[in-house]
């Protein structure tokens, strides 16, 4: 892909100027074979854990109900060297479409506001199991946690939304700028692919701010967290393009985070 070869050098150059750092890109640690024999969710699916770079975890808590986020999660782990926890087969709990939220101890219908969620004993068991899997994948302190989600809302069909934990306004602006540059590099020579807007909190106002998971779920456990909401086009027709894009972005952004901690 023409854009892929140019993305790392072009984008990292600007990122280094913004951060005042140099020489940040290091080798990726290989991702181990996933463990598909994790304990099943109550009456539903399973946890799939892959161990990679300690402290850096990609999560796909709605791997099959948020269509294709399981595939994206595994592919991002391969591209970045991060660890991964992907939940598959959780499905719907009833005719109304209620599901375990997995990354927090509640049940709800996908897309419902946080006030409509209800905590149950079964949902708590699922959440506790997911938390243990993330801790296992992290292999120590959880430095960076990235969740991959999908939605089909018309209002967000033309953009990628990223809710954040642990980022200042300036850091969020740098993240947004970095991803926009990676996007533009990858889309060069691909006029058929949509140029999705990039919305990053707190620079932008989001539809999906992940408030429930921040206050009572996994997003609040990490030093820095990203909750990435992908529209349908980024998970279907143009999944390969946007997955490669996110892989480049996450690799560069995570190395920048590591460099600022002096590691």
Descriptive overview:
With 263 residues, this protein is of the alpha/beta class. Strands 1-3-2-7-10-8-9 form a seven-stranded mixed sheet, with helices on both faces. Strands 4-5-6 form a three-stranded antiparallel sheet. The radius of gyration is 17 Å and the shape is globular. It has seven helices and ten strands.
Keywords:
263 residues, alpha/beta, Aminopeptidase, 7-stranded mixed beta sheet, 3-stranded antiparallel beta sheet, 10 strands, disordered N terminus
Mean of pLDDT: 84
Question: Describe the biggest sheet?
Answer: 7 strands, mixed
Corresponding CATH architecture: 3-Layer(aba) Sandwich
- H-E string: HEEHEEEEHEEHEHEHH
- How many runs of DSSP E, i.e. beta strands? 10
Explain briefly what this protein structure is.
The chain is globular and about 50 Å long. α1 packs antiparallel against α4 and α1 runs parallel beside α7. It has 263 residues and is α/β, with parallel strands linked by helices.
How are the elements arranged and paired?
Elements: H1 2-19, E1 46-50, E2 53-60, H2 69-80, E3 82-88, E4 98-100, E5 106-109, E6 118-119, H3 121-138, E7 144-150, E8 159-165, H4 169-187, E9 197-200, H5 211-216, E10 224-230, H6 232-235, H7 239-260
Parallel strand pairs: 2-3, 2-7, 7-10, 8-9
Antiparallel strand pairs: 1-3, 4-5, 5-6, 8-10
Helix pairs in contact: 1-4, 1-7, 2-7, 4-7
